[in-house]
User: Which sequence fits this backbone?
């Protein structure tokens, strides 16, 4: 139906039964709802990724599991205690 004028589409719609019109409308609404859901999911994933890349950007963020090893006392990257190799100097 490429290049079909609107009155031809109206004629095609008149030839559909009531059941077919309901099916067509239901399919359209389902696809519209799916599209809205996918757009919302994409925005949520972008927000989640941005928070994960910079967890200190928001006040409610907690340390990620990958960052928890840095918080253990006695870790080599924990600078609250002197380094073992510098004590002898």
Assistant:
């Amino acid at each position: 139906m490429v290049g079909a004028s609107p009155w031809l589409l109206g004629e095609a719609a008149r030839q559909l039964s009531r059941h077919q019109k309901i099916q067509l409308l239901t399919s359209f609404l389902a696809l519209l709802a799916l599209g809205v859901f996918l757009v919302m999911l994409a925005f949520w994933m972008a927000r989640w990724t941005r928070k994960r890349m910079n967890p200190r950007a928001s006040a409610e963020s907690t340390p990620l599991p990958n960052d928890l090893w840095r918080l253990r006392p006695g870790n080599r990257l924990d600078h609250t205690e002197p380094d073992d190799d510098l004590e002898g100097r």
